[in-house]
Amino acid sequence: MSEAAARAARILVVEDNEALAAGLRNNLEFEGYEAYVAGDAAAGLAAARRHTPDLIILDLMLPDADGFRVLRALRSAGDATPVLVLTALGDEADKVRGLRVGADDYVTKPFGLMELLARVEALLRRTARATGATTVRFGDVAVCLATHDVTRAGRPVPLRPKEYELLVALLRREGAVAARHELLREVWGYDPSVNSRTVDTHVLELRRKLEADPSNPRHLLTVRKAGYRLA
């Protein structure tokens, strides 16, 4: 499995052809990615805000607005998420226009699945190198996003999968507050068997493993009536 797949990167597919969108989602999930689908421009922009994807696959021909408008909206809002656009055969002008508006790469329809997956993987690798965000640190804790290794004061800290995903969800916000319902959606999806106490329990366990004094945390902080943040 690729490095990007090992990190369970989030990929948003904005495509109005339901069969194509479902096929892309299934194949992306088979490769180990976390995939979401939106069928039009408005739903795509909403999903980009909701899921904070690592990469967006964007069809330029959407029923409510063209993909160029989606690209402009993302970039004007300061969203630097890499975008792979899907263009029609022979539309070279659309390819050039998409790249100028803010696309990072393109694939021409009809496309081969292996080519698309290779471009997805390359874009994710390129983004990781550009941001230098392979290892994130706070206090004496280091989190390697490429390997999922977590250390404290140089010593390995074993985390369960959901503990690690929760930690990464907090890291993504760069100090901003994460509401419990946001963390439930991002880490546990829409599983009806979990509730806000699940988040609290996992935060307590992360504090036990990562804080010098779990009862008086310096990094995994509770924001009263709001949620949690990482300092």
Automatic annotation (TrEMBL):
CDD domains with a match to the protein in the record: REC_OmpR, trans_reg_C
Response regulatory domain ranges (all copies): 10-124
Pfam families in the cross-refs: Response_reg, Trans_reg_C
OmpR/PhoB-type domain segment(s): 133-231
Any one biological process term the GO annotation gives: regulation of DNA-templated transcription
InterPro entries, per the entry: CheY-like_superfamily, OmpR/PhoB-type_DNA-bd, Sig_transdc_resp-reg_C-effctor, Sig_transdc_resp-reg_receiver, WalR-like, WH-like_DNA-bd_sf
Gene Ontology CC terms: cytosol; protein-DNA complex
Modification sites for 4-aspartylphosphate: D59
DNA-binding region: 133-231
Keyword check for DNA-binding: yes
A molecular function (GO) term: transcription cis-regulatory region binding
Entry keywords, A to Z: DNA-binding, Phosphoprotein, Transcription, Transcription regulation, Two-component regulatory system
Protein's name according to its UniProt entry: Response regulator receiver
